[in-house]
Amino acid sequence: MKKASKQRIDYVHSGVIVRSQRKTLAICIKPDGTLEIRAPLNLSAAAVEQFVASKSNWIELKRAQIAERQLAAPRETPLPLFSPGELECAACELIKLWEMRLGVAASFVGWRAMTSRWGSCTPRTRRIRLNTALEYCPRECLEYVIVHELAHLREANHSMRFWAAVAEALPDYKARQAKLSDLQWILRRPISSQ
Ligand SMILES: [Zn+2]
What we know:
21% of the residues are buried. With 194 residues, the chain is of the alpha/beta class. A hairpin with a 4-residue loop joins strand 6 (119-122) and strand 7. It is built from six helices and seven strands; from the N terminus they run E-E-E-E-H-H-H-E-E-E-H-H-H. The chain has a four-stranded mixed beta sheet with strand order 1-2-4-3, with helices on one face. Strands 5-7-6 form a three-stranded mixed beta sheet, with helices on one face. Helix 3 crosses helix 4 (139-151). It folds into two domains: 5-72, no CATH class; 86-193, 2-Layer Sandwich (Zincin-like), CATH 3.30.2010.10. It binds zinc ion (ZN). Zinc ion (ZN) binds next to loops.
């Protein structure tokens, strides 16, 4: 058996080139959307890249299909990270803290099961609404949502100034956002099974 070699590529799409004693090129899309390009030992990198580029429409289509299937796949709703009452308490504390730090005050904070967002704010009435599904999110995500909505009392839109205020309050807010988007599917879970 001849050895197969692996080489990382970051051309149009991230992935690896796996070279072996084969005669043709093949592209395999992994469940995470990265590519594995199986290539003959002596084919130039440029030729491989050209081949991948020529298949980019097909790759994008397949990736979209994989993403759709993953969204559609039924997943177990995780156990809540907050016990009943605890979420409201934690939120209440965080709201007090961040109202003080940001120099703003909400007129009303309500809870609701929402299917597309974790929180909302109406700057005109200074009302904030939080998603009851935050009980499935770690505390740092709850804090991010609260800071985000309270920051809208300073800047109504997602302007540069808005994001600068969020970044100043929570320098790691992007990591918290990423965690939340990983949990976004929870918002669309079937509620009936609860
Ligand atoms: Zn916002």
